[in-house]
Write a structure and sequence with these properties.
The structure holds two protein chains of two kinds. By secondary structure, chain A is an all-alpha fold. Helix content of chain A is about 75%, strand content about 0%. Chain B folds into two domains: about 220 residues, Rossmann fold (3-Layer(aba) Sandwich), CATH 3.40.50; about 150 residues, Response regulator (Rossmann fold), CATH 3.40.50.2300. In chain B, about 45% of the residues lie in helices and about 20% in strands. Classes of the chains: A mainly alpha, B alpha/beta.
């Protein structure tokens, strides 16, 4: 029974890990290119969750359709915040940009509260379930995972096969060198920030496909913390690293519970949460640049 | 000797003047209820209900009842509240502000046991009457606080009715699973449920907690599924209660009865989850629309009655919030608390904190919310709970049988 439970939970963990991965790629991309830690990261996830909720409840549209909408909206928000706030802060002390992204997060929370209220909302996208001998998996989770893989692959090809993607990688490696080679670094900064935010907002839709309840303006904070852990685990400047670290994090979160639950007199949930942080601590000691960081 | 007489005379004069000042003090022009309310954050839903309930009953006291009778004069009630954002630090600083800046006459606690407990020492420091309509943990009343009085029932009793009801309809349903939030309130509630389940001869096949703010219950629920329970009793608050039922449905965990505390009873619960998931889910409730408390009923059991009837309360509640929404028990208990304060003040004709607290200790009455009586620690002992179940999008009272507005759907429909 334990084996069955473990495999079942690891399956759910892998699916959730894919979503965590995409949810963290934006954070890593923004840090990699413009060296800004987006403390308001979770609030952009919240925006994506509300995009999915609104499209489903008000327009009756599937969350799958909400994915590109969230990307476009997220990129628009990214460009807006970049040209109004972040552009002036790229060379500013780190604390300034931290405070600015924190303020952006608060602003988004309050706007969401103004529009939607503080209720915990949810939607019910019933697209069936797969019943396996080890567990039951709702198809919405499978779609969320497939969506995450597609997005990660798309980003991989975009980074490695397109001129803009190559320019972005060049800026991550050495922005002065990229400038000398004729890369419009200012535009790359803006585009990277917009894509980073777009990815993050899009991941909010994927998260609601996985967990379509508890949507409220203040839901972002808990995802910010997870995203930071995953980003450090993957290597802060590496979006691919973030994706793989997301998968690992999801597996640990779900798999460890089953093992800890076998220890008599132990509450497995708090131990599961702390395990991820212990792993991070260990990794920082052994490989401070993270799994795929340089 | 002469000096001594003089001292006694001065002392008696001062004492006499103070006594006279107190005895003949003009009654206050108004009485103010202070409230660190949960307008935002995780308890916003219950907080909104509480505000609506307080406003509705204040409206009734001021405009129907004619105000509170203090010192031979009827004075109105006022309501001063701020948003504590469902946070402990907000509660403590706001209670201090309400007492020292706004000079309120009584403080109503914020929603939840944790927030109520956080605010109690502050109220106690200022010897301020602290009325608890949202903190059900028994532990609040084991700290020796002098100024706290409870309107909501104690947490340990929440699932007593639920389990008795299932035992009544299906004594063969023996396997109970307890899965709940690791919070003050839920621990107390589930402790009571475990004790009662054992008393009924049930077997606890699963007992686990999950942390506050949890985003995924899949591993815990998978574990629970493997134990094949007949009855699942769980939850903690609204947010995790939604997640709980949703993920039980995702994992196809079908049980005979599912009762979730402090979430399933909220009107928004069904809307957030949809009928396929929420149908048949139960919850213990301090009050539901449809209960039949009335002045006649109060008379039969020898209790005084005060306050609006059920329908009048509902209409005042809707007016207070400006929404066409049926109140739930969070509103009713907060409203009943206003009535308890009014009764206590009128019984002694004073607003002195210590005296009002003592009067509340002796108070027994009935309102639309039901009975009201507290023990020596201030814990509510006069109010009994009901159990509700979602049936076709409506909350139906299913237990106790004498208060039921419909029949229990058992076993619970499959997800």
């Amino acid at each position: 029974m334990i084996f069955q439970l473990l495999v079942g939970n690891l399956t759910h963990g892998l699916l959730l890990g894919g979503v965590y991965g995409v949810a963290t790629m934006g954070l890593s991309l923004i840090f990699g290119v413009i060296n800004v830690v987006n403390v308001g990261h979770g609030q952009f996830i919240m925006v994506g969750a509300f995009v999915a909720l609104t499209m489903f409840t008000a327009l009756g549209l599937s969350p799958v359709i909400a994915i590109p909408v969230a990307l476009v909206l997220g990129m628009a928000l990214g460009f807006f915040f970049f040209y109004t706030v972040m552009r002036r802060l790229i060379k500013a002390p780190e604390l300034t940009s931290l405070l600015a992204t924190f303020a952006m997060g608060i602003l988004l929370e309050e706007i969401a509260k103004l529009i939607f209220g503080a209720d915990f909302r949810g939607y019910n996208w019933a697209v069936g379930k797969i019943t396996l001998p080890i567990t039951t998996i709702p198809m919405s989770k499978v779609y969320a995972f497939v969506g995450s893989i597609v997005i990660a692959l798309f980003l991989y090809f975009w980074f490695s096969k397109t001129r803009l993607g190559t320019a972005m990688r060049a800026v991550i490696e050495d922005n002065e060198g990229a400038r000398v080679c004729g890369v419009n670094v200012g535009w790359i900064y803006a585009l990277s920030f917009a894509i980073g935010i777009g990815l993050t907002v899009m991941s909010g839709v994927l998260l609601t496909m996985f967990i379509p309840v508890g949507i409220n303006p203040y839901m972002g904070g808990r995802y910010t913390l997870k995203a930071f852990v995953i980003a450090v685990l993957g290597g802060l400047t590496s979006p691919y690293g973030a994706f793989f670290a997301g998968l690992i994090f999801g597996l640990i979160e779900n798999g460890a519970y089953t093992l800890f639950a076998q220890i008599p007199g132990v509450a497995p949930f708090p131990l599961t949460v702390s395990l991820a942080f212990w792993m991070l601590f260990f990794l920082l000691l052994v490989k401070p640049t993270g799994l795929l960081g340089k | 000797m002469k000096k001594n007489y003089l001292r006694v005379l001065i002392f008696m004069t001062i004492f006499g003047l103070l006594f006279a000042a107190n005895a003949f003090a003009a009654p206050p022009s108004k009485l103010v209820i202070g409230h660190p309310a949960c307008l935002s954050g995780k308890y916003a839903k219950a907080g909104e209900q509480a505000i609506g309930g307080v406003k509705a009953c204040i409206d009734w006291v001021n405009n129907v009842y004619g105000g509170i009778l203090v010192g031979g004069k009827r004075v109105p009630l006022e309501y001063k509240y701020y948003d504590c954002e469902s946070k402990k630090e907000g509660v403590t600083s706001l209670i201090e502000r309400l007492i020292t800046v706004d000079k309120v006459n009584v403080v109503f606690s914020a929603y939840s046991s944790g927030l109520t407990l956080a605010g109690a020492p502050v109220a106690e420091r200022y010897s301020m009457l602290y009325m608890d309509h949202g903190g059900a943990s028994d532990r609040i009343f084991q700290q020796g606080f002098q100024y706290i009085v409870q309107t909501i029932g104690p947490g340990s009793k929440y699932h007593v009715g639920t389990l008795s009801m299932i035992d009544h309809f299906d004594p063969e349903a023996k396997k109970v699973a307890l899965a709940y939030e690791d919070s003050e309130f839920a621990r107390m509630t589930m402790g009571g449920a475990e004790k009662h389940a054992k008393k009924l001869g049930k077997k606890i096949v699963f007992k686990r907690t999950y942390p506050k703010g949890v985003t995924d219950l899949t591993p815990l629920l998978s574990d629970m599924k493997a134990r094949k329970p007949d009855i699942v009793v769980g939850g903690g608050h609204y947010e995790d209660g939604q997640l709980f039922a949703r993920q039980m449905s995702d994992l196809d965990i079908n049980v005979k009865a599912l009762s979730l505390v402090a979430s399933a009873t909220l009107p928004a619960y069904y809307k957030a989850l949809g009928g396929g998931i929420a149908e048949g889910v139960m919850g213990p409730s301090h009050w539901e629309y449809g209960v039949t408390f009335s002045p006649d009923g109060a008379m039969k059991v020898g209790l005084d009655w005060i306050g609006p009837g059920q329908d009048e309360f509902v209409s005042l509640f809707k007016k207070a919030l400006g929404k066409d929404m049926i109140p739930d028990y969070h509103a009713a208990e907060a409203g009943a608390q206003v009535l308890a304060y009014v009764k206590a003040v009128e019984n002694i004709g004073s607003v002195d904190q210590f005296k009002v607290r003592a009067a509340l200790g002796k108070l027994k009455f009935m309102s639309f919310y039901g009975g009201w009586d507290v023990d020596d620690t201030g814990m509510q002992i006069g109010h009994s709970m009901v159990d509700m179940q979602w049936q076709n999008g409506k909350r139906v009272i299913v237990w106790p049988l004498e208060a039921a507005t419909g029949n229990l759907i058992y076993p619970k429909p499959k997800f």
